[in-house]
Amino acid sequence: MSQQKSPTLTIPQLPLGTPASTIYIYGIVTYEDAFGGKRYMRFRLTWGGPDKRSFIKDGESFGVLFPNPEGNEAN
Fold first, then answer.
1. What is the largest CA-CA distance in the chain?
2. By residue range, what is the domain housing residue 29?
3. By the 8 A CB rule, do 72 and 54 touch?
4. How far is CA 1 from CA 4, 44, in A?
5. Closest by alpha carbon to 66, among 55, 74, 56, 53?
6. Model-wide pTM > 0.85
7. Domain total for the chain?
8. Of the candidates 36, 41, 47, which has an alpha carbon nearest to the alpha carbon of residue 11?
């Protein structure tokens, strides 16, 4: 079970887009192929750093996730 850190940081308190405050999202997709083989795909997405892109819609700020060249693997 995850625990929330206190106090919670908000965007104005944590300026994203620097190497120290880039958000990394890791995941894995597992599946069985048509021949019954077990397969997986690990991935890593980022928001921040040199690829930070965001936009504002209806007064709310949104960020765009990008595939990261590291942390990706599949069999």
1. 51
2. 21-74
3. no
4. 10, 22
5. 53
6. no
7. 1
8. 47
CA-based torsion, 3, 8, 12, 13: positive or negative: negative
- Domain-located, residue 48: yes
The pair phi, psi for residue 12, each rounded to 5°, is -60, -30
Q: Which residue has the higher pLDDT, 25 or 56?
A: 25
C-alpha distances in Å from residue 67, one per residue of 3, 6, 17: 27, 30, 15
| Domain contains 11 | no
Q: pLDDT tens, 38-65?
A: 999 999 988 877 666 777 788 877 777 8
Tokens found for residue 38: 């077990």
Q: Does pLDDT of 9 surpass 60?
A: no
For 72, left (φ over 0), alpha (ψ -120 to 50), or beta? beta
